[in-house]
Amino acid sequence: MARDLPLLGVGTLEAMALASGGERVIVALDARMGEVYVGYFDGGRLCGEIGVYPPQAVPLPQDGGWLACGNGIAAYPTLRERLAPWVEGWCP
Question: What share of the chain is helix, strand, coil (3-state, %, to 5)?
């Protein structure tokens, strides 16, 4: 701002998806109170909308080949079990 340079806002889920190095990435962050923020990214672009869901209500992908990242995966084992058929890799 001091140099009057343009800024570009990047959301946390998008930044995590890009940092993962995966092509197709599911990011799930613990939103507390039994919910997760979830976003699906393909080629660095958001697929659909970011949402807040209970783990048992997170929309599932149409097909496989996803990488899953975020502390919501570890916080809610139910979510990991639900996503497992579509995920071929897990970020730490």
Answer: 30, 35, 35
Judge contact between 43 and 20, C-beta under 8 A: no
What 3-state class would DSSP assign to 8?
A: coil
Within a 10 A sphere around the Cβ of 13, how many other Cβ atoms? 22
CA dihedral 68, 23, 17, 26 (to 10 degrees): -30
Token pair 């080949």: residue = 65
* pTM score of the predicted model: 0.90
| Residues of the chain predicted below pLDDT 50 | none
Full strand arrangement of the beta sheet holding 24-32: 45-53, 35-42, 24-32, 66-69, 87-90
The proportion of the chain whose per-residue pLDDT surpasses 70, expressed as a percent, equals 99
Q: How many C-beta atoms lie closer than 10 Å to residue 18's C-beta?
A: 14
Amino acid at 92: P
